[in-house]
Amino acid sequence: MYSIAIDGPAGAGKSTIAKTIAKKLEFIYVDTGAMYRAMALYFIRSQIDYTDEAAIDAACKDIRVSITYENGMQQVILNGENVTGQIRTEKVGNMASKTSAYPSVRAALLDLQRNLAKTADILMDGRDIGTNVLPDADLKIYLTASVEVRAKRRYDELIEKGQEADLAVIEEDIKKRDHQDMTRDIAPLRQAEDAVLVDSSGMTIEEVADTVIREFEKVK
Which positions bind ATP (predicted)? Predict the structure, then answer.
């Protein structure tokens, strides 16, 4: 079984790149961020404040997140409900960024993520895959891009969906999320010592995917 870990900050294009690579290599793609977003959705629905660690700890006992695949596409199941289409809002993303710092939230998903890696060739992306979830991954990639590029990508994505967007607000939000992810006490976002740094700022999706595949060919 082979495993590829892709880490990096919000908006670096991890999910898009990971899906492209997984398809080319015929690996199973595991979007760990979607798992944290599913838990965040539960907290929001339960009207739990992200600062209330005791309430979040208690709620974790009632949350079951699982991953299934339909026609090759990952589906995220929260307590029996398919929430794949409900977890991609800014509100859920911000809640996920804040609550993923809690040990109880990370512990709830860690075993599931590691067990997935034992069952098939997988490509997993997130914030701490190479440093914490899959420290023995065959290939570790740290994918990044400038704040300006990441904000513009997110802006274009929202506009394309017909949603209102403010580029300056998005840029500021990304800076805040970077700070949250990099300074949290539990499994902070950082580049693993043995990870390959890939800056996608001036690259197309295909160029990034090909770069990662070339790196994988070296370790096969």
Answer: 8-16
Residue 146 assigned as binding residue: no
- What is the pLDDT at residue 74? 84
User: Does 11 carry a binding-site annotation?
Assistant: yes
Say whether 10 counts as a known binding-site residue: yes
CATH fold of the domain at 1-27+124-220: Rossmann fold (3.40.50)
Average pLDDT, the chain: 93
Is 68 known to sit in a ligand binding site?
no
User: Which two three-digit tokens encode residue 5?
Assistant: 């870990």
Sequence ranges of the chain with CATH classification 3.40.50.300: 1-27+124-220, 29-119
- What residues have CB less than 8 Å from 211, skipping those under 6 apart? 198, 203
What is the Cα–Cα distance from 20 to 125, expressed in whole angstroms?
Answer: 12
Q: Is 71 left (phi over 0), alpha (psi -120 to 50) or beta?
A: left
Region 29-119: CATH code: 3.40.50.300
Tell whether residue 5 is among the known ligand binding residues.
no
Query: What is the model's pLDDT at position 205?
Result: 93
Which parts of the chain register pLDDT below 50? none
Q: Is 103 annotated as a binding residue?
A: no
Consult the annotation and say whether 13 binds a ligand: yes
Please check if 9 is assigned to a binding site.
yes
